[in-house]
């Protein structure tokens, strides 16, 4: 596809020491290759990075030039705090989120900008394709509801927006309180608060981002820490009045069972029930 002139949108990415340098390079390159390039790329370094990661950032600084702004934090503060800082530093009203190990389709931003132009939306996400870490085997497709009403109803049970695919309005994110401390659910918590402020959501019904998922992702969705974070998050939704007591009980039971089963079983559940094959 032919590249156009730079668009007035920002890209927001957070990176920390455990990221894979090759994955970071591929992710940033996919942003560089967009059919509508960005004029503002904010990269938040969450704590000190490795020499290898810093080399990748130096390479990309040469490509992007002044469009790439690197914000360095002296200590690891977590994803929510890093993205909260990044949102404030983005210079454009429209912000595209990108994870440091995923790959955006070259027309991702073009498709999402069309939705902001043609519709009265505050948050625009998309479906995603999940691969193994080497991006050779497809794990599945995470499809999410398209329209605003369906998205908000779905949010009572599961996260209705694929975070790594999302574009949103900076002003609306800040009005809703920006990213806050909610480990494992920073983005989901933000969507719910934006919904309560009548923000309008939309999901493009094609997969605009290739995501590294598979076994490593399943590991993060199990164990005592995840269970604790999950209960805290669901309690907050109930406290806010976003879900009922019965919905709270159902969500906790389903998520607790999923996180407690062996990794192989959890993998199977996601493959057969919660994801569709590509």
Structure description:
- The protein is of the alpha/beta class and 278 residues long.
- It has two domains: 7-212, Spore Coat Polysaccharide Biosynthesis Protein SpsA, Chain A, CATH 3.90.550.10; 213-278, no CATH class.
- The protein is built from eleven helices and nine strands.
- Strands 1, 2, 3, 4, 5, 6, 7, 8 and 9 form a nine-stranded mixed beta sheet that branches.
- The longest helix has 18 residues, at 223-240.
- The radius of gyration is 18 Å and the shape is globular.
- The mean pLDDT is 90.
Throw out a few tags for this protein.
278 residues, nine-stranded mixed sheet, globular, Spore Coat Polysaccharide Biosynthesis Protein SpsA, Chain A, alpha/beta
């Amino acid at each position: 596809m032919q590249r156009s002139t730079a668009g007035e949108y920002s890209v927001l990415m957070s990176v920390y020491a455990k990221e894979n340098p090759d994955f970071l390079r591929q992710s940033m390159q996919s942003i560089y290759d967009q059919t509508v390039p960005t004029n503002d790329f904010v990269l938040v370094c969450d704590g000190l990075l490795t020499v290898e990661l810093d080399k990748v950032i130096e390479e990309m600084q040469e490509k992007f030039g002044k469009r790439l702004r690197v914000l360095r934090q002296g200590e690891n503060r977590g994803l929510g705090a890093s993205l909260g800082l990044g949102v404030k530093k983005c210079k454009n009203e429209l912000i595209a989120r990108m994870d440091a190990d995923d790959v955006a389709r070259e027309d991702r931003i073009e498709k999402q900008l069309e939705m902001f132009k043609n519709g009265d939306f505050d948050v625009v996400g998309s479906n995603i394709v999940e691969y193994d870490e080497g991006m050779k085997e497809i794990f599945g497709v995470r499809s999410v509801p398209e329209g605003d009403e369906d998205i908000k109803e779905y949010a009572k049970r599961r996260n209705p927006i694929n975070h790594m695919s999302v574009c949103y309005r900076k002003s609306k994110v800040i009005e809703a309180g920006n990213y806050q401390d909610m480990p494992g659910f920073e983005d989901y918590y933000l969507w719910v608060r934006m919904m309560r402020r009548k923000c309008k959501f939309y999901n493009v019904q094609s997969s605009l981002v290739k995501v590294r998922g598979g076994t490593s992702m399943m590991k993060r969705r199990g164990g005592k820490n995840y269970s604790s974070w999950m209960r805290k998050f669901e309690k907050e939704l109930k406290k806010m009045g976003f879900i009922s007591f019965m919905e709270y009980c159902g969500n906790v039971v389903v998520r607790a069972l999923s996180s407690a089963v062996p990794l192989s079983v959890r993998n199977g559940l996601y493959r057969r029930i919660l994801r569709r094959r590509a």
